[in-house]
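Protocol step 4 of 6: structure prediction from sequence.
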Amino acid sequence: EGVEKYEISLDELQAGIPPLDLLAEKTHIFPSKGEARKMIMANGFSINKEKFTDPQKTITAEMLLNGKYILCQKGKKNYYIIEAK
């Protein structure tokens, strides 16, 4: 509760999604791909509490928690949940 939540199709996730597409276009966690790239490369972004530092690394269904969720952290205090349906 109190955490922004986004939905994405499980099929898309199983095929793999480039992180910049996921974060800037499909979920709007970042306003642009450029900002997403800068934040990732500056160690300011985490997926499931682990630093995510490679903007080329594909996000896949293996990253899901409980087979359903991805927890994203932007900066120190901004959390988001991406739910695969």
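Step 5 (inspection) to follow. The two ends are 19 Å apart (CA to CA).
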